[in-house]
Amino acid sequence: MAEFSILKPALPPCRVVPGLVLTAALAAGAAWLTTLPWLSHAGLGALTLAIIGGIIAGNTFYPHIAIHCDSGVMLAKQRLLRLGIILYGFRITVQQIAGVGLRGVVIDTLIIGTTFLLTCLAGIRLLKMDRETVWLIGAGSSICGAAAVLATEPVVKADASKVAVAVATVVLFGTAGILIYPLLFTLLPAVSAAQFGIFTGSTLHEVAQVVAAGHAMGAEAENMAVITKMLRVMMLAPFLLLMGSWLRRRGPRTATSARSFPWFALLFIAVALVNSLQLLPAGLISALNQLADLLLAMAMAALGLTTRFSALKQAGAKPLLLGLIMFCWLIAGGGALNLVVQHFMA
């Protein structure tokens, strides 16, 4: 995972342009839909609508043109998402990061540890699933969705079909969270926006999904959610190192090293530090924020385009059931952990 080469495509520009145009069109369409009063009142933001539009397109006409668009779509899904998150740092200050601080680190650590262990117990012991699929779903549910699944694949040496199932599972339930979390926010008025933002960032699967759900709940919740999520993403590297070490002790066939470090999470914090110094003119900051919104919406659309219901159908009910169990745990159990930690570390 070459985090520093964020914009450098692996193929000639002519190969990536169709996919980028498609994701940009879906992003623009989502932005236009937010101007409709009935959608605006429903709390559906541009990022949420972009991923919904992507899912609809991805399971209807997109497979027929995928050969022409896949390169650009993957560029938007991976590198434009990271660039958008880095630029999102211009909305964040050091004071806001300090507001999450140790409390966010403790919550993220507990969420990752308990979620991965419970996934293993439920998947291997209860549902009798193969270990590789369970480990991949566990990593995706615990840390950062599809990115964590893909980063864990070389550690566990899973087949491509198992990777596809795990990615589809975590994206499906994470996407459902984009709609469910804002609804929960409106049903729990006693919970502050900052507290719910930390809860969202510590329990929702993908970085993109956290941004979309947080966006629907307002600026304060969105900022706290993104900061908490980025702290969680940075735990991917130690997670992979620990898992690789454990698997090496189990047998030589799984021995490999963790090769991924989420550099974009560190760059996000660096940009937030620069923003805190207030060195850049307000007009430039506004333009960068608009660019971040566009890149994130394109990434949402790309994520939707690559979500295939057919992959879940072929895998059967067990991965879906495991994903559902962990999704419920992240909301209920993750919510309980958040309440306990935030009470004692207020």
Overall description:
This protein is an all-alpha fold. 80% of the residues lie in helices and 0% in strands. It is built from 15 helices and no strands. The protein has helices at 13-33, 37-41, 46-58, 62-88, 94-126, 131-156, 160-187, 193-203, 207-217, 219-233, 236-250, 263-276, 282-305, 309-315, 317-344. Helix 5 packs across helix 15, helix 6 (131-156) crosses helix 15 (317-344) and helix 7 (160-187) crosses helix 15 (317-344). Residues 1-7 and 253-259 have low confidence and may be disordered.
Topology:
Elements: H1 13-33, H2 37-41, H3 46-58, H4 62-88, H5 94-126, H6 131-156, H7 160-187, H8 193-203, H9 207-217, H10 219-233, H11 236-250, H12 263-276, H13 282-305, H14 309-315, H15 317-344
Helix pairs in contact: 1-3, 1-4, 1-13, 3-13, 4-12, 4-13, 5-6, 5-10, 5-15, 6-7, 6-11, 6-15, 7-9, 7-14, 7-15, 8-9, 8-10, 8-15, 9-10
